[in-house]
Amino acid sequence: xxxxxxxxxxxxxxxxxPKAFKDYCPNGLQVEGKSTVKRIATAVTASQNIVDQAIAxxxxxxxxxxxxxxxxxxxxxxxxxxxxxxxxxxNDISLIAYxxxxxxxxxxxxxxxxxxxxxxxxxxxxxxGDPRSIGLVGGxxxxxxxxxxxxxxxxxxxxxxxxxxxxxxxxxxxxxCTGAAQGFIEQAATAGCDLYVSGxxxxxxxxxxxxxxxxxxxxxxxxxxxxxxxALGEWLQSEYGLExxxxxxxxxx
Length: 253
Ligand SMILES: [Zn+2]
Fold this sequence. Notes:
The protein is α/β, with parallel strands linked by helices.
């Protein structure tokens, strides 16, 4: 099956509703390539490594969570930015990126997919007043302690998470937000959670966890954000009959 590039982008926009979000980058089509799409690749980030893998697989579209053109980045197309863009353009590959709309989506977003992978139930958004809350609150379906949750994260995400807290503490209420969302730790503590899980960690988050009395797990920015774009690629395969190739690379952060 094939469809036109505008049809593909329109289908993704209908699903992910990017106009409902205030974001730090353009969502949707970022680089225009071939007008007909048969084969797509998905990945977390459009790094040079992933662009090269996409070229080797001869795809028409590269669909990612972290694309280009972030707010406040230099606008000149030089160096690393030139090499990535030139590789896409010379090979006629479109780049499509969805950032916050993919974190927040209620069926195949990063946060919903992470809960499925880690066997957590979802009660409500971390920002309860916002129907598009990116962070979520819920609880473990089978795990009982921080140690149980940590071993599952290790097994499923294939990463050693960094834990601030006591492994023997019981866990009944978890808040989580994939990627670089450690800043929501206070909100998670205020919501009465025993545990907050995100991707990254800074020095001050250690103190925040200790002083707020909440366990914090940094499970990896890349590792926690693998599953939304993967689910989106699978959705495109079943919805439009496109060939989908999932690309990955090692990123310890
Ligand atoms: Zn991210």
